[in-house]
Amino acid sequence: MTASAPGAAAIGDGPVWQAQSFDTEVLGAPVGRVLIARPPASAAARDALAEMAAKWRKDGIWLVSSRIPAEWSEAAEALESVGFLQVEELVTWVRSVPDAASGASATDAATAKDSGDCVEIARSAFRFDRYHADSRIGADRAGALKAAWVRNSLAGRADVARVVRDDGRARGFVLCRREGGDAVIDLIAVAPDSQGSGVGRRLVFAALDAYAGRVAEMRASTQATNQPSAALYRKAGFAPAGRARTFHWVNESARG
Asked: Alpha-carbon distance 85 to 186, whole Å?
């Protein structure tokens, strides 16, 4: 994004404002994010962010997010000084991908027929993500964003899309993408009435099998408050590799 974008400014290295068209379209109000390339000097960060926040209000921006490494305390203080609130702590999990598929997980490739089930799971299964964690967003909007994410993934955004079916109904899904030389679990969810039944484990191992021999590592992220997901990844051989803090700035007067 160029420096002419609404609220663009430099904190650390280069422009830090990015409009987010997908989120804007789904949530029905202007959404963007601030990228902080390195820990900024506290005073400079506050000045730049204050200028940006004034511009966002003038331009009717509704929601701005920023995600920084958990240890960047000065950056966190700078964000909070202009009205950002922390909404989540995100844990990144990593494990090596086997050279050959184990074949131990019984799942199916997702098809267009699974879309309705997967969208419904997306609307009902998430509770810990940053949108659901922020009461200012609203559960309906948060669910709508997850549903749109699933539709886009099944329409081609995902590199791998697997489901667990029971009596012809999808009970859970995993959507994966390649990022550089690694694979990422982009989104995974299990229907509320099937949680705790082993569906999540089957989906994680299906993802590993799908990339066996193709990539070196697989990454996944989950909120620090999401203990069931943390336990799932730990039991599947993943190890925590980093933490980040996500902040939201919300302009209530611009709510769509």
From this structure: 25
pTM, rounded to two decimals: 0.89
**Helix residue spans in 95-198 (DSSP H):** 115-125, 130-133, 139-152
The verdict on residue 103 lying in a domain is yes
Q: What integer best gives the mean pLDDT of the chain?
A: 89
Same domain, 106 and 77: no
**Crossing angle, helix 227-235 and helix 199-210, to 10 degrees?**
50
Residues 54 and 110 reside in one and the same domain: no
pLDDT at site 5: 40
Question: Domain containing 127: what range?
Answer: 95-242
DSSP-derived secondary structure letter, 226: -
> What pLDDT is attached to residue 3?
32
Per the document, the length of the chain is 256
Same domain membership, residue 62 and residue 154: no
In angstroms, the CA 34 to CA 177 distance is: 24
58-98 pLDDT, tens per residue?
999 999 999 999 999 888 888 898 999 999 999 999 999 99
The last residue of a domain, from among 43, 60, 83: 83
- Based on the structure, what is the number of domains in the chain? 2
pLDDT tier for residue 119 given thresholds of 50, 70 and 90: very high
Question: Within its chain, how far is the Cα of 108 from the centroid?
Answer: 24
Structure tokens at 149: 């994410």
